[in-house]
Amino acid sequence: MATIDSRIRLAISAGLLFLLTACGGGGGNGGSGTGASTPAGGVKLQVVSFGDSLSDVGTYAPIAGAVGGGRFTTNPGQVWSQNVAQYYGDTLNAAYTIGIDHKLSAQGGFGYAEGGSTVATSADQYDFLSSVIGNVEMPVNQQVSSYISAHGSFNSGQLVLVWAGSNDVLRAGNPPGANTVVQTAASTLAQIVGQIVQAGATHVVVINVPNIGLSPKGITSPDGGANLTQLSQLFNSTLNGALQTDGLQGKVIEVDSYTWITQLVANYQANGFTVSNTAQACDPSKTPDDTSLLCSPPTYAAANADQTHIFADDLHPTTHTHTLFAQYVEKQIAASGLGH
Q1: What domain count does the chain have?
Q2: Residue 37 belongs to some domain of the structure
């Protein structure tokens, strides 16, 4: 992966002290609505989120914000978990943010998801944007442990979002060895979901892995994404089986992102896009390290690329895609009998 150029490093250095003050101290995660108002979702809930870059609300914003980035999407757009939180009258802030020393510090928010995280493998096993953020991301098992350590338990007034496994699929390699890696990660994720339920959570959303083979990264790979699609399917079937074996299927709300993104790509124009999975909204020649974490309007491929493209970079959704996925999740939650 290319190293950030000197111009970006200077911008980060110049803006960092201000950004640490402006962005790094997000504080608590109280609801955004008043106590007497009813949110759009019909029920007021505090949202807690665990996962990876697909749900990261700003772990790396104090540094990435220096070039207009902050989340893994078409910044300054929000990710789906923020939209869902607002739908239920809450504001989702990062639980941890990174400092100039490349260390994480607690901020009091409930957005524990961090870009680069796997289900259970420690960060130092991988080189993920290390020139920008170092190797600090918490795997999901550690995210949950950190929450329980800080708060003790979950409660019935919370909506817990769990979306993880994509990085395990991406880093698994090729079968047959990759199959074991993916199955282990999926089974482990089911165990982590069980810990969340046992710790008192009554509204838990578990999202399976999207069809990663359909991402720009997938379709431009030598096999056209076939391996990533196969591993995505294996992760999902293993997760579904493990949830059933562990007696959790009736205790969680399962959301099928694999089928959702597959259908979205197939029907992209009907969903308001003009570009499917064949190009990315963040211009690779303008966006540092070609990552949506550092993407902003000046680096868009077109002025409205955050609305016209499905993908921000070669893996992550644009603002429009996040908005549509949040709406899909909200419908699945309502179908379970919670809110509307």
Answers
A1: 1
A2: yes
Range of the domain at 321: 6-335
> Per the domain annotation, does 340 fall within a domain?
no
Separation between Cα atoms, residue 225 and residue 219, nearest integer Å: 5
* AA letter at 271: N
Q: For the whole model, what pTM was predicted?
A: 0.89
Examine residue 1 and state whether it is found in any structural domain, yes or no.
Answer: no
Percentage of the chain lying above the pLDDT 70 cut: 86
CATH number of the domain within which 225 lies: 3.40.50.1110
Residue in 251, 252, 249, 273 with CA at minimum distance from that of residue 261: 273
The pairing of strands 104-106 and 96-98 is antiparallel
pLDDT in tens, 216-236: 999 999 999 999 999 999 999
Structure tokens at 189: 């994720």
* DSSP reduced 3-state for 255: strand
Q: How far apart are CA 200 and CA 194, in angstroms?
A: 10
User: With contact defined as beta carbons under 8 Å apart, do 251 and 197 qualify?
Assistant: yes
Q: How far apart are CA 223 and CA 50, in angstroms?
A: 31
